[in-house]
Amino acid sequence: MLTILWISIIFTIFFIKKKMLYYIYPILIISVPFNENVKTILGLRGTFNGFTVDVFNLIFIILLLMCTYDFIKYGFRFKVDKLDFIVLILSIILVIYIFIGYINKNIYLSEDLNIYFKNLFIYFIYRNELTTLDKIKKLMRYLISSGVIFSIITIFIFFNKDRLLPIIYDEILLSWWGDRITFSNTSVLMCLILLSFIVKFNNKYIKYFSVILMGTSIILSQNRTILILTPIPLLILFIVNKVERKKITTLINSFLICILIILLGIYFKDNIIHNIQTSNNPLINRLNKMYYELLYDDLNVRKVTDNFNKQLLKQSNYLGYGIGKDLILYNIDYSKSKSGTFIDNGILTISIKMGIFSSILIYIIFIYINIKVLTLNDLKISHRTSTVCCIIVFFILTSIINAQIIYSLPVYIVSIIFTISIILFSQNKKSIV
User: Fold this and answer.
1) Which residues of the chain fall short of a pLDDT of 50?
2) pLDDT at 265
């Protein structure tokens, strides 16, 4: 019933104001936890007479048809950039490695085809649609609102976790994550929190409320990497902003307060360590475990898995095995855990499937976008430096520590929208604020 309601809403919007679908698509993707069970509960995924309907896919198909029609009628609606040529080369490489994957009879070929082609089409859909600064500024505000909605949902799940988590997670995820409220959408919040400080709000309290909600969602995820990386761009923003505004006294006072806190921490170190080790708080226990893993665990699952798969890449002479290649996750004792479409290293995953040259092109895009940000002279220095810092830590998180940049739709679509926005702002010599 809910699915029919969603479909009715989508087609009503299409016939009344179809351009709104370009905004509704990322809003839904970011707002709704990236989990099939959640989509089913909310009616965004339903089955009718054995036929499964996914509302996300429905909107995607409509957008693709709209974009195709506009392209046939108007041609390219955007000013071509160097980035577009790199994406074109990657597209050609993708087609070549699809044939290689077919020849090699790779078992995950159909799954990868669905993901890689959808990602490619999403790029061209939004590259062709986001042609004005007003559209991008409007979309940026929608993205922040989406992050707030997602955070409210995760907070609701937290207060009802005993009832909801067994429904949302399968047995494997429940054994892995326990009571952690974690979805790949959480990685996106890192960017949206920084964006909240850069974009102008009519009411500053709305900004702070949004940041608090998104920060709370990050804490509830208990994801040690995101907890460590998220404050870094914000700290850079604070420091450079104070220097930029010549508020040296405030910066010095903040520095002295930090030194005082560190000294107090050293003085009461034994008491603090004892309280942490005897705490029953799951977040504190998670951070404590993270600390000892970072110090002493030289042989964790990711390292073992990466080492084995690097050898696999080397055996192919760094040329790759084709789209759909199965990648194996290894246990800490070197035994095989399971195989799937990816491992927790996006760059290595792409290299094994599409060769080392594809990964080099992705690094080139990464460097190119950072250079574009640094040359946005209309943007404050503090905003430029913090944005570059955010791009770096976000890239590390979603492309090296895991493979969300490819296999998580919320992460991918935010990456694409931000990349296209930076290119457009650069071409127009304008900033987002």
Assistant:
1) 295-299
2) 55
DSSP per position, 390-423: HHHHHHIIIIII--HHHH-HHHHHHHHHHHHHHH
Can you tell me the distance from the alpha carbon of 130 to that of 417, in angstroms, rounded to the nearest whole number? 9
Instruction: Let me know how long the chain is.
Output: 433
Could you tell me the two tokens for 280?
């029953």
Q: What does the block give as tokens for 334?
A: 């070197």
3-state SS assignment for residue 336: strand
The CA distance from 146 to 157, in Å, is 17
Secondary structure percentages of the chain, helix, strand, coil, to 5: 75, 5, 20
How far is Cα of residue 42 from the mean position of the Cα atoms in its chain?
A: 22
The DSSP output letter for 366 is: H
Measured in degrees and rounded to the nearest 5, phi and psi for residue 421 equal -60, -45
Backbone phi and psi for residue 47, each to the nearest 5 degrees, phi listed first: -120, 130
What is the spatial distance between Cα 390 and Cα 193, in angstroms, rounded to a whole number? Answer: 10
Kindly report each contact of residues 168-172 with a partner whose C-beta sits within 8 Å and lies 24 or more positions away, as own/partner.
168/33, 168/35, 168/37, 168/38, 168/41, 169/37, 170/37
**Is the distance from CB of 98 to CB of 323 less than 8 angstroms?**
yes
Residue written as token pair 């903040």:
254
Compute the CA torsion angle 278, 282, 283, 288 (nearest 10 deg).
Answer: 40
Residue range 238-274, pLDDT digits in tens = 888 777 666 665 555 555 555 666 555 555 555 555 5
Rg of the chain in Å (alpha carbons): 23
173 Cβ neighbours under 8 A, 6+ residues apart: none
